[in-house]
Amino acid sequence: MSIKLAIHGVAGRMGRRIVALASADSRFEIVAGLEIADHPSLGTDCGLLAGIGEISVLVADAGSGFDVIIDFSTPDSAMTALDLAIAHRACFVSGTTGLSPEMLDRMRSAGEKTGVFHASNFSKGISALSAIVSFWARALPDADIEIVETHHRKKADSPSGTALELADRAAKSRGATIEEVGVFGRRGRLGPRTGEEIGVHAVRGGGVIGEHSVIFATPFESLIVEHRALSRDVFAAGALSAAAFIIGKTGFFGMQDLISTEGVGYA
């Protein structure tokens, strides 16, 4: 039996790609495409938005009959979609970034009632990168760590959720938190860099899908590990895998939980 899927933020870049991939995936049946009440795409066929032709599902501001909602929207809209999932006893998968600690706590609490999956990045390559960053942070305790992320000009939040997670992984690997050691951009005469700080820098321009570089620099050498997304389909495919994974589950999940079910574990 197909998983009945609702896509929240269906008119956005990610929403359109999820429509395209889910329509060709026998695991799923798209039953709702959701947007905010005054969105100009209301009433438009979701397939036309995605460039795949009509699929007889119109963009609406409400829906029902779904097993899971995939959300790529804004922080406030994501909370609305979470409430909708709970009300319909559906699972919830979100890739929305820029969430406040309180919003993340709401997602964790919702995991007591249904399956909730959140990731700032649904790429398995980013999960591997995260593991590398943790290992290098421990293996090179004296190296300075700097993280640079680049995204398209329309991305609203800075730095990216992925950059923040990478910084957090590096900090925790050294027994600290990003709140204690994070430095977000630099300007002016700040004095010498300390060995503890982790720099995080955001670049915005053009149509860049997503690039993350992590630099480990010592006085005599530097190591750089980088991930570049070549297509939004990498994130859409990951979100669909998360939706299939979470059906029938209760709790709060992330990419590490998904990857471990596929026989791969990143420490």
Describe this structure in words.
- The chain has 267 residues and is an alpha/beta fold.
- The protein has 2 domains: 3-122 and 232-261, 3-Layer(aba) Sandwich (Rossmann fold); 124-228, 2-Layer Sandwich (Dihydrodipicolinate Reductase, domain 2).
- The chain is built from 9 helices and 12 strands.
- It has helices spanning 13-23, 46-50, 75-87, 101-110, 124-139, 161-173, 178-181, 233-246, 255-261, and strands at residues 3-8, 28-34, 59-60, 68-71, 91-94, 115-118, 144-151, 182-184, 198-204, 211-217, 222-228, 251-253.
- The chain has a 7-stranded parallel sheet with strand order 3-2-1-4-5-6-12, with helices on both faces.
- Helix 4 links the parallel strand 5 (91-94) and strand 6.
- Helix 1 (13-23) crosses helix 8 and helix 5 (124-139) runs parallel beside helix 6.
- The longest helix has 16 residues, at 124-139.
